[in-house]
UniProtKB/TrEMBL annotation:
One of its GO terms (biological process) is transcription initiation at RNA polymerase II promoter. Its main location: nucleus. GO terms for molecular function: promoter-specific chromatin binding; RNA polymerase II general transcription initiation factor activity. The lineage of its organism: Eukaryota, Viridiplantae, Streptophyta, Embryophyta, Tracheophyta. This is Transcription initiation factor TFIID subunit 10. The keyword Nucleus applies. Keywords: Nucleus, Transcription, Transcription regulation. InterPro entries: TAF10.
Length: 111
C-alpha cells in the first residue's frame, strides 16, 4: 500500500522562511516538499521495521493472542532507532509524576 500525501506549498514556504531561505521559484519549494515527504516516509518505514522486529509480548489467552497479532504499536523507541539511522538524535523526557505515589495502587500508598 502506498500512501501519497502532498505537503502544502504554504507550509514548506513558512518553514523555509523561518530558517531564513526565500525563493520565488515554486518548483524549488515543491522539490523541498518532495524531499521532506520522502524522508518522512523512509523514517516511518524504518520505524515500522523496528516495531516488527521487536519480540511480541507473551499472551496466555487465545482471544488476546488473535487481537495482539493484528495490531502493531509503534513506540518512541522504534522511532528513535529509525531516526538515529539518519543522524537525528531524539531525546524524550522520561515520565515524571507530581508525587512519588502517583500511579500506585491506592492500597499501597503511605500517606
Amino acid at each position: 500500500m502506498i500512501l501519497v500525501v502532498q505537503i502544502p506549498d504554504e507550509l514548506v514556504e513558512h518553514y523555509l522562511a523561518k530558517s531564513g531561505f526565500q525563493c520565488p521559484d515554486v518548483r524549488l519549494v515543491r522539490l523541498v516538499a518532495v524531499a521532506t515527504q520522502k524522508f518522512v516516509a523512509d523514517v516511518a518505514t524504518d520505524a515500522l521495521q523496528q516495531c516488527k522486529a521487536r519480540p511480541a509480548p507473551v499472551v496466555k489467552d487465545k482471544r488476546d493472542k488473535q487481537q495482539k497479532e493484528k495490531r502493531l504499536i509503534l513506540t518512541m523507541e522504534d522511532l528513535s532507532k529509525a531516526l538515529s539511522e539518519y543522524g537525528v538524535n531524539v531525546k524524550h523526557q522520561e515520565y515524571f509524576a507530581d508525587s512519588p505515589s502517583t500511579g500506585m495502587d491506592p492500597a499501597s500508598r503511605e500517606e
